[in-house]
Amino acid sequence: QVQLVESGGGLVQPGGSLRLSCTATGSIFSLYAMGWYRQSPGKQREAVAVITGGGSTNYADSVKGRFTISRDNAKNTVYLQMNSLKPEDTAGYYCNAHRRSPTGLEYDYWGQGTQVTVSS
User: Fold this and answer.
1) What contacts 90, CB < 8 A, 6 or more positions away?
2) Can you tell me the mean pLDDT for 71-94?
3) 111 and 85 Cβ atoms separated by less than 8 Å
């Protein structure tokens, strides 16, 4: 089992920045790919950024060049630095931990979410 706790959301003006944090407990953090997802009312949850245990990253086209995902395995924490925020970035942001075992079992864990609102 993995427990995930996000923090760092809030209200910010367009063009501003926020940093989200997600701290994991309960398992070996470095084994998991960590991701940030977001969901707005009436829309499906979408992947924003993912980072593997080895540090490889992938981003949604809509956030490339503005958001940066990173992880500190010593602190069991993954971060999402969000710059040049736009109103369309407004959403609930959710942290995900994903692992596939050597036998092919998939494990997915989610945090409770943190709200990001970009508005003037």
Assistant:
1) 40, 116, 117, 118, 119
2) 96
3) no
Asked whether residue 28 carries a pLDDT value surpassing 90, the answer given is no
pLDDT at 58: 98
Q: How far apart are CA 1 and CA 66, in angstroms?
A: 32
Q: How close are the terminal C-alpha atoms of the chain, in Å?
A: 40
13/74 Cα distance (integer angstroms): 33
**In this prediction, what percent of the chain has a pLDDT beyond 90?**
88
Strands 18-25 and 3-7: antiparallel
Q: Which two tokens stand for residue 32?
A: 């998991």
